[in-house]
Amino acid sequence: MFYNEHMFEIKCNLTTKEKLEILADAAKYDVACTSSGVDRKGRKGFLGNSEACGVCHSFGADGRCISLLKVLFTNHCVYDCKYCVNRCSNDVPRASFEPDELCQLVIEFYKRNYIEGLFLSSGVLKNPSYTMEKICETLLLLRTKYRFNGYIHVKAIPGAPDELLSKAGYLADRVSVNLELPTSDSLSKLAPNKNFKNILEPMEKITGTIAANRLSVGKDARMERSSINKYLTGSIFNSANNSRYGSLSGKNRTALESGTGLSLPAVSGNTGMNRAFAPAGQSTQMIIGATPETDLTLIRTTQHLYQNYDLKRVFYSAYIPLNEDSALPELDAEIPLLREHRLYQADWLLRYYGFQADELLSENRPNFNEYLDPKCDWAVRHLGQFPVEIQTASYDMLLRIPGVGPKSAKRIVQTRKYARLDFDTLKKMGVVLKRAHYFITCNGKMMYKIPINENYITACLMGDNQKENWEIKHQNQQYQQLSLF
């Protein structure tokens, strides 16, 4: 059902500050805590640059907090997604920016060193085509009239024409299309105006265009990944069987294998600048906790998206009860912050540690133990593979030991060529022995005499994580943004 935008009272003659208060608050449910993935130095005649070390409430390697202006173009929306605070059936204050008004806001904040870039999303005003046209107009003004050279992340609107999606990709650094929910059944139940076909088609075309653009300048079709993945035999990015779980859209081909037929039309000449298409790649977001999918379903979907759509990141957003509806959890339901945290850790294991989704979980145990990090949870369920001898274990196996990361695993491999390791040396290398000592031996000896028993080790690890788990679960459960006032 489409609701008339005048069904509820709409505030007119709002000041820019009043619009910003409404639209920045409405944007806080879009997740974008990530590094930008783009290094771009300042250019003569342009304003700003882009640093790959991070954006939007992230911390760079030097400790700097780097932030974006995260805002909606408008919170008017013709859709009635049950989980969304901006759905058309909600009586909430509504506002919209004018393209030039938003550009001036970005530039003024940038000049005052409040922000280093823009994260722009939007409700669907009138229809997807109209909304995307307004977003593209804003980005074009920023890049040409205001000569803004900083980082821009834009949310593409499914259902918009290919020409507008292409234009947005050439003007922005990163483009994202929200998957919203991990299964088509859940999407049809909670977002009756949306469907997987309309979401996955633009996602696939964006992937194909990024690949074609990279090939045209002599790069590999896939986005760059950490060098860690080059040495992992089981990495999901170099696995031969990338379509193991089939396609979410019901097709067997992937965007990287389908040729130029799934690319967007080239419109770089219309941007007024010679720019690459979405150089920081593509991302998406899934809501967790609003529907009954298991963690296994979520990480299988995540793995498929990384393999077949070459996404740079998949974000998880813990469902916050905002609307009263029989299809949703109760308003007093607990926000699954700890579950969200575990899914991000599992996502890291998929991308950097050589794990596959069906290794981390199974049909018999489809959910993570929320009180253990996923690597520890996997290890205690596979004690037959432990303890591992540090002196002889392969690099891949070292990465599967709780408390051992890529840097410490590389140091172990390099150091043991000319020296025998002991537990003190491992600690100096960065190995977290309070977790690792349950699973390793040094020269045939464990650090302590402990039983290799799942229940015993699980209880010990949960005790070690108790403080951290409590802090995550009981943190202020209100999504907040950096105050601009």
UniProtKB/TrEMBL annotation:
It comes from the Bacteria. Residues 72-206 form the Radical SAM core domain. The keyword Cytoplasm does not apply. SUPFAM superfamilies: Radical SAM enzymes, RuvA domain 2-like. GO terms for molecular function: catalytic activity; iron-sulfur cluster binding; metal ion binding. Keywords: Iron, Iron-sulfur, Metal-binding, Plasmid, S-adenosyl-L-methionine. InterPro entries: Aldolase_TIM (IPR013785), DNA_rSAM_put (IPR023874), Endo/Exo/Phosphatase_dom_1 (IPR051675), rSAM (IPR007197), rSAM_sf (IPR058240), RuvA_2-like (IPR010994). Transmembrane segments: none annotated. It holds the Pfam family Radical_SAM. PANTHER family: ENDONUCLEASE/EXONUCLEASE/PHOSPHATASE FAMILY DOMAIN-CONTAINING PROTEIN 1 (PTHR21180), TYPE II SECRETION SYSTEM PROTEIN K (PTHR21180:SF9). NCBIfam families: rSAM_link_UDG. This is Radical SAM core domain-containing protein. The lineage of its organism: Bacteria, Bacillati, Bacillota, Clostridia, Lachnospirales.
